[in-house]
Amino acid sequence: METIGRAGFWATVEKYFGGDVAAYMRMLRTHRAQGKVSAVLGCSVQGQSAA
Fold it and tell me: Residues with Cβ < 8 Å from 42, sequence gap 6 or more?
């Protein structure tokens, strides 16, 4: 599962952010904090619930 997750992360960074990991992480943090749908990814970005 970890390998699949890493592959997906890097595929997204390459496809939508030209390899710029910092830009991808900024987008995730911004959208998670605001509860917005990402126009780039076309999906909602949500944080993990505290257990």
Answer: none
